[in-house]
Amino acid sequence: MKNVLHFRDERVLNLKPSIVWDLLANTNELNKYVGMFPVNFKQFTVEDDQLIRWAETVVFGLIKMKWKEHVFEWVRHSYYSVEREYIEGPYTSVFWSIRLEPLPEGKTRMHLHGDFTCRYALGKVALQTIVYPQLRNMITYALEFEKSDGKKVPLGKMKIELETARLEKAISLLRDTFLNEEMIQALEDTIRFGADEEVTDMQPYWWAASHQFDRYATVELFLFANAAGLLDYDWNLMCPNCRVPKGKASVLKQMTNSVHCELCGVDYELDFDRYVEMKFHVNAAIRQTNQTTFCINGPVQSPHVLGQFRIAPRSKKTVKWPLVNEPIRCRVLKQNDTAEISGSICESAAITYTTNGFTQLTFPQASLYEISNETDQEIVLVIEKQDWDSYALTAREVTSLQLFRDLLGSEVLAPGLQIGVGHMAILFTDLKDSTQLYEQIGDARAYSDVQKHFNYLMKHIKEHKGTVVKTIGDSIMGAFTSNLDAFEAAVAIQRSLPHLNEELSQPVQVKVGFHAGSVIAVNANDVLDYFGGTVNKAARIQQQSKGGDVVIHRDLYKQLAEEQPEKIREMPIESFAARLHGFEEQTELVRFSFTRVTSPADSA
Question: Is the pTM of this model over 0.70?
Fold first, then answer.
């Protein structure tokens, strides 16, 4: 007979299940707080037709424990569980779960369950003297969290070691460049008092949301903090399937164009739009953080996964499902087969997976699922959000900001490397009749006016969350992640031009045009540049500008009119067709005209 011991405990918390979940789903911090021993994990592998991870630890420097850890199972805000099969140590197997039961008045009953199969008598002693106290500390952890109304994660015995002089110097430098004192103080408090996880792998958008700050301003704060020596950054290379980091690069030049994911079993090409994320961490000279691993398989590691289930070969599993109001899908790990879960709702539904994949392309959303595995090996099925992490600061977004280029101008790809960026709006300008301008007022005054015109364009591009990629003669190439931002920058350039002309020796006209679509990032003479059909067409569209106007593609005009119907449709337009250089067919274009000024050529 197996020597199985059972641990059971529970506690009622004055917090909602979703709030308690956010605390307990971070199993690394939970295990650190309760006093678990550090663990070394290997990569996921398939053994005996099961997806497992080998792990090992040494207890008190004496007892070696080695085990096969199966993937966690969970339903977000409801429960998670994990099974371990031990090869070395006082146990042969462990099954552990935390379940959250919703109660009236926004309360939660927290259930702790553990089943331990002992290999020899020492296992029983260790349970009573070490393991059970650690498990009860999980309740203490939740109660400490409750005292702060779910706002502050308990730090336990963690000691924060700060180099105060370096911190104060960095904060002083930050104040010289960033003017929002409230945001600076909040960042300093995070560095001084936050848990280790709060100052490592920092997402500016998440930090902004937790402190109720503007997202764009927060990105600027973090970039200036990097320049001041307070924060460092790295580029996380994300798997498009499981959406967790599969590598890191401290600078863009270290990246290659593909990365391997052992969990999904695929190589994938990097893309600035989704697969490269910029994260920050406190400078190690200011604060040391504990990088020890206690758990890396818990739900917090895959925040987009709402549910994860192990289904044995030729078997079925019934799952209660909390209906969600967001686009979701189901996917099988390693196999990477997917099926959408539609918005239609029913009481129960069946999800069947075979050697040929899912039996349907779409399944309804149901309160109860019967998941069938008709293959000869265990499958791990996840139900996940289709939308990507809204808190991810992608390389596409951050490299399109002028401040990034100003502070991190040396950040470029390796020579010869090409990486897709995704959708961008590319804007070109040109100074009309600049040759005549030099002839009319002389080289010195003309050069000064041209530089003022450059500064003027850069100011408007930056104010509308764009970046100047490069200057070409008297022209500028700008880039934006938003079509609307590019349009509003173009309009602002033309509408405010009379103010610029008041500062110039002679009035000028600016030609403006832009286009939107997918682009490729490259290293061009140590500048992060973009190229592709979208860039070429944007340049050709700008050539159709007469000055004092903005020219765009007819299809882009329709998109903008749908986004901002009142703002766009009230502006008078001229529709026309033109044959763009390098393009065979005529292109349907739209011209927005603004107040024109007299140029040297016009007055000649």
Answer: yes
